[in-house]
Design goal:
38% of the residues lie in helices and 22% in strands. It contains 13 helices and 15 strands. Strands 1, 2, 3, 4, 5, 6, 7 and 15 form an 8-stranded mixed sheet that branches. The radius of gyration is 22 Å and the shape is globular. The model has no long low-confidence stretch (mean pLDDT 95).
């Protein structure tokens, strides 16, 4: 009863491998979309994330992202963002774990690796936004940034749109060289073109910016005019002062944040006044007809990454783990016979030692 289920990275990998990457992504898109569409702040509380940022020993941050389903559970994701990880340490830029707590007792019921989960749910959120705001005949996908997030963006968008060509640009040649290999099996029969930044922006029906741009170093695209009907998923802005899009494009667009309270602090919305920000993705997901009215105009999804998405994604992975019998149950928390005796287990261990 008081054991904690540990779901490791090998367990997560096995879930995706055996269930199939497409099937898991489809589930995530549906589940994340449903979480947005049914979001009710009186039943689900997901506040702005908090954390620590620093520049020693390297530039990075560690954040906590909580979500509470009132009367049921608290889900907390811990995430580290360190843009130097791939080159310096051979690690992903984003590493993460996610945990659930029983609100009846505070018991930690599950701890799970969330690195792949985070990448996939970010792609799923873009797919939800794009399926609402993109033209359904969008075939041209553009990517600014060819890192890990770009792969799950492509994977998710190809599940909801008839993508036929991908144009991609990155300042890192090594990321471009391995891009097609990393997409293997996730985007069949799609032409990939490595090109310049302006070509990507100018010729995309749907555009994703997924970069590790530094604070104050944006925008990552110039003042090139996107297609008048283009939809942009801005994924990389997740910290104060870190932005990817020129304010001139934002002001010509309908800007839809994942979570406005967070987006005005960390997303593209920090460049805008309150009356320049459009409805939230939750509003559009709950009223899809309203979103479809904007398919012939320029739209932006300001994707800062919301804890609501993480809680929805964890449900998907946990259900698979339980069905497949994955994970290892361990006793992490003290559960003495007498809950008022904090030294009970210590005393018992001493007595056992003396007896031996």
């Amino acid at each position: 009863m008081n054991e904690t289920l540990i779901i490791s990275t090998s367990d997560v990998d096995r879930i995706v491998r055996e269930a199939g990457p497409d099937a898991v992504m489809d589930e995530l898109i549906a589940h994340v979309g449903e979480a947005f569409a049914t979001y009710n702040p009186s039943e689900t509380r997901a506040p702005v994330r908090g954390g620590f940022s620093y520049d020693r020993p390297v530039t990075g941050l560690v954040e906590w992202m909580p979500c509470m389903r009132v009367g049921q559970e608290v889900v907390v994701k811990m995430v580290g963002y360190h843009p130097e990880n791939p080159e310096r340490f051979g690690l992903p830029t984003i590493v993460s774990t996610i945990s659930t707590y029983d609100t009846s007792t505070g018991h930690l019921s599950c701890l799970m690796d969330a690195t792949l989960l985070t990448a996939m749910r970010t792609g799923a959120a873009s797919a939800v936004a794009s399926s609402l705001m993109c033209r359904p005949d969008a075939t041209e996908l553009g990517l600014i940034g060819a890192g890990a997030q770009a792969i799950t963006q492509v994977h998710a968008l190809c599940r909801v749109l008839p993508i036929r060509r991908i144009r991609v640009y990155d300042i890192d040649d090594s990321a471009l060289k391995t891009f097609a290999k990393r997409l293997d099996g996730l985007a069949a029969d799609i032409e990939i073109e490595i090109t310049d930044r302006d070509d990507v922006v100018r010729n995309s029906d749907v555009l994703c910016t997924a970069t590790s741009v530094g604070v104050g170093k944006g925008p990552v695209i110039g003042h090139v005019e996107p297609r008048s009907w283009a939809h942009i998923n801005a994924v990389g802005s997740d910290f104060p002062g870190k932005t990817e899009l020129p304010v001139s494009i934002l002001r010509r667009s309908l800007v839809v944040p994942d979570f406005e309270e967070q987006a005005v602090k960390e997303g593209e919305c920090q460049q805008l006044k309150a009356d320049e920000i459009g409805p939230s993705l939750a509003h559009f997901a709950g009223h899809p007809a309203l979103a479809r009215e904007h398919r012939d105009s320029l739209t932006v999804f300001d994707s800062t990454g919301w804890a609501l998405e993480d809680a929805a994604a964890m449900e998907v992975f946990l259900a698979h783990a339980l069905r497949m019998g994955l994970g290892r149950s361990v006793r992490l928390e003290a559960t003495p016979d007498d809950p008022r005796d904090p030294y009970e287990s210590v005393r018992a261990a001493i007595e056992t030692h003396l007896t031996d």
